[in-house]
Structures are given as structure tokens and as C-alpha cells.
């Protein structure tokens, strides 16, 4: 999975380089996409966290506003998601 600063995410086969899909979003990305529990998580520069299924075709799960702008890569630990906005560290989970 490759995310761009101009708002496109592309899924490639890591071995052959075959492109499976490409999806355009309204905002760009600086953080990296992260895999957890069968899904890919990535936050755009406006703080919208996009979640989609990991796979050979694009299938959106949800888009969740963080409420803060940021350029971060989500981190996962002990059932929690950690994301850094421009000013705050946010933890989502139990």
C-alpha cells in the first residue's frame, strides 16, 4: 500500500509489482498506512482516519474524523490506537 501527499492510495502486489487498485481521496497523506486486524488505517492531513479492508480490491470500512489536523502514522498496542495530531497525542480504545 502506497499513500501519496496528493491524496492517492495505491495497492500493489509486493512480489510482482502488479497494481491491484488505486483510490483517490480529498486530502493528501504524509503518514504511512498501517495494518491491523485485517484492515488498513491511515490518517489524512486534515485528521480524517480512513479504514479499508486489506485486499486486492478497494473496500472502505469507515472514515473517522480525529478532530485534529496531523501528519502521523497510527500505532497499535494492547487494543488501543495512538495517533498524534499537530498538538496532542490521542488514544482510542479500552
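Q: What amino acid sequence fits the structure above?
A:
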Amino acid at each position: 500500500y502506497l499513500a501519496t501527499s496528493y491524496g492517492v492510495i495505491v495497492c500493489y502486489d509486493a512480489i510482482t509489482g502488479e497494481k491491484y487498485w488505486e483510490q483517490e481521496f480529498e486530502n493528501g497523506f504524509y503518514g504511512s498506512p498501517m495494518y491491523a486486524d485485517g484492515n488498513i488505517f491511515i490518517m489524512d492531513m486534515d485528521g480524517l482516519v480512513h479504514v479499508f479492508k486489506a485486499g486486492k480490491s478497494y473496500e472502505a470500512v469507515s472514515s473517522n474524523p480525529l478532530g485534529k489536523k496531523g501528519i502521523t502514522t497510527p500505532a497499535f498496542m494492547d487494543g488501543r490506537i495512538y495517533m498524534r495530531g499537530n498538538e496532542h497525542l490521542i488514544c482510542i480504545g479500552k
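Q: And what stands out in the fold?
A: The two ends are 28 Å apart (CA to CA).
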